[in-house]
Amino acid sequence: LQPPLPTEQYLGVFPLKSRDHVRYCFVAQQEARTHAVVDSTLRAWDKTREKWTKFCASFEFEPLLPDMVPSHRLLTIELFGYQYRTGKASKSGQPVRAGTVETALCDVGTMFSELDLPDPRFEPGRTHYVASLKRWLIAIQKQDPPPSRVVPCSLAIIHPLYPLPNLSLIPISRLLPRSS
Fold it and tell me: Could you give the angle at the alpha carbon of 56 between the alpha carbons of 52 and 58, nearest 5°?
């Protein structure tokens, strides 16, 4: 989905000889906007938006939810987030972490914003999450296990180790027991 090109009605305000040039400028602007993001990000957005479109189609909704009041748009995006979390709507088909859910909701919300539509995640006229959505994202983040690449270690364990000498700076011969 791309922002719409100017209508013939809009182009009608320009002199006839300038309309092709104005149309070209808008097409070039859209092209530049597309290339402002790296290809891998565009592919990720496309996959998420494809999942969003399939999700909407399963309920017979239009992807931009044009016939819904804002509160129903929010509920719909929250339902998508829940299904994404559980794996039913995720790209991998597997349950995902809170950060991945938030990224997916951001991809969908950005789609609305790019088309000059209000982002259903935000309070009207603001850039803050609607409180209920924010609370849910915080709650699922707390349910997630710590990242597997991090070994949890409390400061209570690390602090007493700090004053110990750095054994890597001492020659190995001094660390071995002396033979008599």
Answer: 120
In whole angstroms, give the CA distance from residue 159 to residue 6: 63
CA-based angle 89:91:95, to the nearest 5?
Answer: 65
CB-CB contact of 63 with 112 (8 Å)? no
Write out the two tokens for 139: 């709650």
* 76/112 Cα distance (integer angstroms): 14
CA angle 82, 83, 86 (to 5 degrees): 90
Q: Is 172 exposed, middle or buried (0-12, 13-18, 19+ CB in 10 A)?
A: exposed
pTM beyond 0.90: no
Give residue-wise pLDDT tens across range 40-82: 887 888 899 999 999 999 999 999 999 899 899 999 999 999 9
Q: Which residues contact 117 (CB under 8 A, 6 or more apart)?
A: 64
Instruction: Return d(Cα 79, Cα 101) in angstroms, integer.
Output: 11
CA distance linking residue 56 with residue 48, whole number of Å:
12
